[in-house]
Amino acid sequence: MNENIGAEELETVAFEIGVVVPKSSGNNKDGDETNDCIEVLVDEFRKAGLIVDRVVGLQNEFLRLGAPLKTLGQAAAELQLKKRTHIGVDLQFHWDEVEAYERQPDGSLFSWFERYCCHRHIIYGIVNTSTSTIILKSDGNEVHWEPGKPLLRTLESMGIVKEVFPVHDETKRKQLLRSWALNWWDFTVQPIDDICNYYGTKIASYFAFLGMYTRWMLFPAAFGLTVQLVDFGSLQLFVLSAFFISIISWAVLFFQFWKRKNSALLVRWQMNYPAVDNESKYLEDEWYQFQSPVELMKKQGADKTDKPRGKEAFQREEWLGHFMRFRNDAMIILSIICLQLPFELAFAHVYEVLRSDVSKFCLTAVYLFTIQYFNKIGGKISVKLVKYENNKNIERRADSWVYKVFGLYFMQSYIGIFYHALLHRNIMTLRQVLIQRLIISEVLENMLQNSLPYLKYSFKKYRAVGNKRKREKGASSEKIQYMSRVEKEYLKPDYSASIGEELEDGLFDDFLELALQFGMIMMFACAFPLGFAFATLNNITEIRTDALKLLAMLRRPIPRPDATIGAWLNIFQFLIVMSICTNCILLVCLYDHEGKWKISPGIAAILIMEHVLLLLKFVFSRIVPEEPAWIKANRMKNATHVHDMCSRQLLRSISGEKMHAELKKDE
């Protein structure tokens, strides 16, 4: 351990990064460990101010790294992080002025995302500062550490360092298990600030959205339950129309109030966008997920020496990016229409014709297997297309990819339902399909999402123990050696997306499940009002199961800087517009039983209602401000304060220069 770190500070330091290296084989013939690459790596970590805890596992050795506050502060200053000050302005961080900066909601100086960036900067910033190559040893092989090269990158390229990953803080993890994952009595209440402090703003935004969405769902769930169970006789169509108007108004108002809540969360979590330019430093540099800190520092230095680009260059780059995105979107839409649409329509038609339940079950199994293969191919193609777009940062690339892939899932999830609703006008079959999708599909989805990570972890753990027994004879008759906590975390699966893991993490699957559920209960609300009640029960369970999955079954995810739901907000807004159109068509089908499609007063009223609801969506989005008044007032107050300070500083500078000039003139 580091000798210059006090005992009290040492106790408060959490180990948040794990480095996986091979176990020492003991084959060092001369007994000199000064040039052993693992020993050198540990020594360099300690010289950089990190606390290193070495844990020997069954197959590998694990280096748990922790950083004292001073070490993190110095790294933050080198990275030129911007942090919120007490006057409400984001300024470049300086360790000597640490008291000027606001603390996080839990009292810590740095957020988990900032700490992760600082850790990565420290461990990948260890370079060979000498002018000659340093020869290191690893199991009898030579490792050449060249001048100016990061040591960790060199060892990674040689396969000596197997992986660098975030590790759980056991104290905080157990606290979240008690107050969040296992706290079923509070239903939708969650410790959002604690989630943000531990997992970062992106995951906290998802759970804040899921909690608010579930609470707001109680109204349409109660209304839908009443409409479904009570027989209103001749007034049934009128009640369905009132229910339809209510849920559209509910959805529009919910997303407006979510924007307000999200603005408040941005302020509370000290995020400086979307009020400022999205191309801020947080997003622009992509924060080590694809580049090392050394490479980023070189890039920043090169950017400073580059000549400023002219207006024409910016316009050329802007329109080229728009053209590439339009071209890629057109390719995806044409592929969906020409390839996926005929397949989905053929499946829906065969499913309608078949009479045997066994045949329908076999057909559905083949369909699900085939469509998963199509989705993976579509996801990989979308990733390649996005790479050619002129997106400024990883979050924008992820949003562009989400739009493309959602088109595939939209067609897969809804085209069969549209077929039953619009072509066959079979409301009973439509309700059966909706019940299957809402109940069976979501239950199976939750079971797979929570069981597959555990099965993967159990298999890896069993294989690791089996390999240990094979290497050590007679170990089978002894008690099995228990794995350390860090080794168990290493064997757990990542929080990654089912497709497109290059651009998205597991939040893609969680948001996709919510979006498909929202589209299903909204677009066919008049056919199955009870769907809102099923969705509410599912979401209450989803909050706890997703929390348990993150805390107990998966590795700690890499934090992301964004604090909004990104592209999914526009997808939800699109689904609201689609809901207005589809429900109006359903009401026409219920009103016009004979299918004559003649313009009667009833059908005319439904068509007028469609246009009124579209107008109502626009009006509500203007009446309810997206940002609370107190946030605007605070921003104006802070801007005025900064302006006054800058003005006084400028006046002092001008006065000082004038006095200096007069004194020089007198001399």
Automatic annotation (TrEMBL):
Signal peptide feature range: none
GO cellular component labels: membrane
Name of this protein: Anoctamin transmembrane domain-containing protein
Originating species: Solanum stoloniferum
Cell compartment(s), UniProt: Membrane
Domain Anoctamin transmembrane: 195-637
First-listed, main subcellular location of the protein, grouped into a coarse class: membrane
One Pfam short name: Anoctamin
UniProt keyword terms in alphabetical order: Membrane, Transmembrane, Transmembrane helix
Record membrane topology: Multi-pass membrane protein
Bilayer-spanning residue ranges: 203-223, 235-258, 330-351, 401-422, 514-535, 571-591, 603-620
